[in-house]
């Protein structure tokens, strides 16, 4: 808050230090002789006036610091360390001058689902072994709902799909970024007997000679004593 700096009910008077001039004369002895200079009055800061009794709250400064809440419109697409300026919301100016500006610097909270690179978004999607081998349609989250993505048969881990225009809006209005979907093929860790038999048949049809690993201590001991 800004005020005059005087206690309510009191008035200003001529500065007793500078006699209302707003400046004082200072004399100094130098090697060149006696030098006289003028400086701004330290008591009235050049105004030529002082208070009969200064404000007890601001000590005559005329300003008081208070915390206030302001509503700020966050620009769509804003990124870390970008800022906006709120004109006139900064510190009060000296000697009745205009207030400064308030700069709001943004910190964007990371997402637990997406990664951001500029205006582009990266997303990792897990699919099963059968989906990767046979192909499928999967639901992919975006910033504006879900879309369906076709997974071609034979898709490998690391395959990248680009969804154009599904990224973040450019903060300066230059369109939208893209959403890049990276596929991760998940290998099953627990198989039923039926699933195991199917995979054995698949390996046999593919010409693969699989040496099945023992799954428990008894199997390991049995293979050890048999010399397998």
UniProtKB/TrEMBL annotation:
GO molecular function, one term: unfolded protein binding
ZnF locations on chain (CR-type): 1-67
Entry cofactors: Zn(2+)
Cellular compartments per GO CC: cytoplasm
Pfam families: DnaJ_C (PF01556)
Subcellular location: Cytoplasm
CR-type domain sequence ranges: 1-67
Annotated keywords: Chaperone, Cytoplasm, DNA replication, Metal-binding, Repeat, Stress response, Zinc, Zinc-finger
Any GO BP: DNA replication
Known partners and oligomeric status: Homodimer.
Family: Belongs to the DnaJ family.
Record protein name field: Chaperone protein DnaJ
Species for this entry: Staphylococcus schleiferi
